[in-house]
Amino acid sequence: MFMLFIISFIIVPVLKCCGTETSTYTTQYDEVDIKEIMDNERLLVAYIGCLLDKNLCTPEGKELKRDIPDALQSDCNKCSDKQRENADAWIEFMIDNRPEDWTKLEERYNPDGSYRTKYLESKHNATSNVDESK
């Protein structure tokens, strides 16, 4: 009887509370318009500054900053489809249009450069496929 009590009222609640990791990141900010941020110098600089600890972060910036290391390490396996789409757009934009800022972010969050390599390979493959179809 005592064992049933321990299992029912102590172990099960602890496992429910703390024993399992969240399977996805919050989707609360999935509707943030990433294109609007990339097209607005003031917003873009603010987000980059947030990610580099140079200025304060918005709530979504704090969330992003908290999740980036895990997302990069796990190849974004907890990301929603929208988050993957936004991450790809952000990385593409930063590498192509703001290489100095990308280098700073990469040094902090992806020092082995694997995401730059992955992006450049996919860009090369896409270009090769277009050339072959002509």
From TrEMBL:
Signal peptide start-end: 1-19
Superkingdom of this protein's organism: Eukaryota
InterPro entries recorded? A10/PebIII, OS_D_A10/PebIII_sf
Task: For this UniProt record, give its keywords in alphabetical order, as a comma-separated list.
Answer: Signal
Q: What is this protein called?
A: Chemosensory protein 4 variant
Give the originating organism.
Bombyx mori
